[in-house]
Specification:
heterodimer, A: Jelly Rolls, 2 domains, 15-stranded antiparallel beta sheet, B: globular
Chain lengths: ~475, ~250
């Protein structure tokens, strides 16, 4: 306790150190301010959001009739083919694993409205999906059925149209004037470092409806043609449907799915706004390294160790004081920076991906700074050179991030770097979600980290604990 | 001036740290370049991105060690009190700083040459072993020669920038923090800025993103500024740091 007091007194009475830590907090806010103010997407079309508020892609070709109450619809999908452009106007047959064709019941044609659908996909068999984020796998067959009873919708699949297997039952608020029918969607093809559009055509046969469907012809339209989450049809193609000999031939592009970085490139994530963490990190690392190396330089370490001969305790007390102070600065900085940056960016028309847990990001950023400070302290105690300690920790935490930001870095290496280096800790700021049913570049460059938030921080913590252990041993063995 | 140079050279030679830092710079540069060359995605038409740039990626790590050396040459004397002795022997402060800058330039340039040529050689061997003999950067190629000499100059300039910053700030931790923030932080901040105009401006003026354009051998039109002009920006940073450092050393008490 006395030790803690002593260390706290040392810390608080050096103006440069207090300034350093306060600067760290301010840098978080300043960069968030800069990021928010400098963004400008005023006048961009609004990003569609789903029933749970998350951004969605809701662009597809829809052949529909309205369903006023309960009813069912059955169809078989004998063929689904996809084309991808090899050059401008040069379409070649290709495979887009999540190209979809099937049946859908949807609240209305507004982008982001509630829906439930069952579909065949190019490479993932039959799937039942609803409200953008939910996905259930079914058997690999070609017959599909949707039954509606109130808000309860059951999807079934069959190999022959007589024996049906239930895929799932979901509750979706469709309202009284729901639309139902056939759909085709063809997401962007993820190739190399980028994406390219695709277009798919499906043949539908044996279409049968029962229940309160309106009479009349089927109407076809492309839902969500104008949308920031829809890259459009490939050159010289468009959505359409024809009815040759009782069946349907439907061509469509787009996707019905949660939006990800690749489909919403203009969107911002919270960790972009918190880029100031890097600046704060450097300030904190400098202060942390100085808190031990300056004791050696001024020979204060002799007095410190004479007063408290338990050398590991001295180290622990220093780590605790530094950790607490930087944690508070980080949490306070993030608590101001995050809402401020988000507000400013949104005022400039930028869509910010939803933040599921602002508290985790704030506490995590504080913890990241605190643990990095403890790592810098340990390395400072081992090297006794402030320049060496500062450089080691900055290079270990910031350089991997710079390397990951190189677009030519293969995804495997980028993911490895954000798993094993101390830079893994930045995972604690991630807010984007990876969806298995959406193909995309889930790389750290796009703010998708391979580790879960706290697991990433644990990697850094492991380095800090190891550093602290080595520092304690070295402090015992060597002369001060 | 000759005696000042001799004194600085003796200091640099007789302390263990500079030699280790320079060796470390060579090792780090070659190692990271080699790793980058061995992992970068390659297709039948060549490797992703700019092969020379990938093969010299280690400069981004090596510069940190060059910066430490630049900082320590000055701040080491301030923290140990050695600077008083130095100034007693050579009272002209500008001469002392110039002598330091010249010896540092010589030492870093020699090590940087080894580091950069080593990276190129490692890159050639690795690309050859991976079965891509064609795109391996060769020194006889004009742009590759520019990338090579440019990278050597870049590392030297970063050491001088660090020396200048340390002459102003005097404390080694703060100096290295500021230098590394200038190098690593500005490119990251540029990514966070939404306005492409500001972003471009930051890329043109930041010492690392501007200076490393000298490594570009392909796709020169997409660069924020031309290769040699980019290195010129880094040189301007180093010159400014040295001038301010010189003034600050001349005016302030030790």
């Amino acid at each position: 306790m006395k030790l803690l007091r002593a260390e706290w007194t040392k810390f608080r009475t050096v103006p440069g150190w207090v300034t350093g830590v306060v600067t760290a907090g301010l840098l978080l806010v300043l960069v968030a301010l800069l990021a928010g103010v400098s963004s400008d997407q005023k006048g961009a079309p609004p990003v569609p959001t789903g029933p749970d508020g998350g951004p969605v892609t809701d662009s597809f070709y829809f052949v529909h009739r309205s369903l006023a109450g309960d009813g069912s619809i059955t169809v078989s999908v004998p063929a689904l083919t996809t084309s991808v452009p090899a050059g401008i106007g040069d379409l070649r047959p290709g495979v887009v694993p999540w190209a979809k064709a099937g049946l859908i019941l949807k609240q209305n044609t507004r982008q982001g409205s509630a829906y439930a659908a069952i579909m065949v996909t190019s490479s993932h068999g039959v799937r039942m999906q609803d409200n953008y984020v939910n996905d259930t796998a079914g058997p690999a067959v070609r017959w599909l059925r949707l039954d509606r009873a109130g808000d309860e919708i059951t999807g079934s699949a069959s190999a022959d149209g007589t024996r049906w297997t239930k895929v799932g039952t979901v509750r979706v608020k469709l309202g009284p004037a729901a639309l139902g029918g056939l759909f085709v969607a063809s997401p962007q093809d993820v190739v190399g470092l980028g994406t390219r559009g695709s277009v798919s055509t499906a043949a539908f046969e044996n279409l049968r409806t029962r229940g309160r469907w309106t009479a009349g012809a089927w109407a076809g339209e492309h839902v969500g043609a104008e949308s920031p989450t829809f890259a459009g049809y490939p050159e010289n193609t468009s959505g359409s449907f024809t009815e040759p000999g009782g069946g349907f031939q439907v061509t469509g592009a787009g996707d019905i799915a949660p939006a990800v970085r690749d489909s919403l490139p203009t969107g911002g994530a919270l960790d972009n706004i918190l880029t100031g963490t890097f600046a704060a990190l450097i300030a904190v690392i400098v202060v942390a390294a100085l808190s031990i190396t300056s004791e050696y330089r001024t020979k204060l370490i002799h007095v410190t160790l004479a007063a408290a001969p338990g050398r590991s305790q001295v180290l622990l007390a220093k780590a605790l004081v530094l950790g607490c102070v930087t944690f508070v600065a980080g949490v306070a900085g993030t608590a101001v920076a995050a809402p401020l940056g988000i507000r400013l960016a949104q005022a400039n028309g930028v869509f910010i991906f939803p933040v599921p847990s602002p508290l985790r990001v704030a506490l995590g950023t504080g913890a990241l700074l605190a643990v990095a400070a403890i790592l810098a302290l340990s390395i400072g105690a081992v090297l006794r050179s402030s320049a060496g300690a500062v450089t080691t920790v900055i290079v270990a935490m910031v350089l991997p991030y710079l390397l990951v930001a190189n677009p030519f870095m293969p995804a495997g290496v980028a993911i490895w770097l954000t798993r094993v280096t101390p830079a893994a800790a930045f995972a604690v700021q991630q807010t984007l979600v990876q969806y298995p049913q959406v193909a995309s570049h889930y790389t750290p460059y796009n703010s998708y980290y391979p580790l879960a938030p706290w697991a990433g921080l644990a990697v850094l913590a492991a380095y800090a604990v190891a550093g602290l252990a080595v520092a304690a041993v070295v402090l015992h063995r060597r002369d001060a | 001036m000759r005696s000042a140079l001799h004194a600085e050279w003796t200091k640099l030679r007789t302390v263990a740290a500079p030699a280790w830092l320079l060796l470390g710079m060579i090792a780090a540069t070659v190692a990271l370049s080699a790793v980058a060359t061995s992992v970068v995605t390659c297709g039948p038409s060549g490797c992703g991105g700019d092969p020379a740039r990938t093969g010299l990626l280690g400069v981004q790590l090596g510069q940190a060690l060059a910066a430490i050396l630049g900082v320590l040459v000055v701040s080491g004397e301030f923290s140990s009190g050695m600077f008083r002795t130095t100034l007693t022997a050579i009272p002209r402060r500008a001469t002392v700083l110039t002598a330091k800058a010249v010896t540092l330039t010589g030492a870093v340039a020699v090590a940087a040459t080894a580091a950069v040529l080593g990276s190129l050689l490692a890159g050639r061997l690795i690309l050859h072993r991976r079965g891509f003999p064609a795109p391996a950067p060769a020194l006889s190629d004009g742009p590759v020669l520019r990338a090579t000499t440019g990278s050597i100059l870049y590392l030297t300039l970063i050491a001088l920038l660090a020396l200048g910053v340390a002459a102003v700030l005097r404390d080694s931790a703060t100096s290295i923090g500021v230098v590394l923030a200038l190098l690593y932080l500005l490119p990251i901040l540029a990514q966070a800025i939404g306005d492409p105009h500001w972003q471009r401006l930051l890329e043109r003026t930041a010492p690392m993103s501007a200076g490393l354009t000298v490594q570009a051998t392909t796709d020169l039109d997409s660069l924020p500024l031309s290769p040699w002009a980019g290195l010129g920006v880094t040189a301007a940073w180093a010159a400014a740091a040295l001038v301010v450092g010189g003034l600050s050393t001349a005016r302030r008490d030790i």
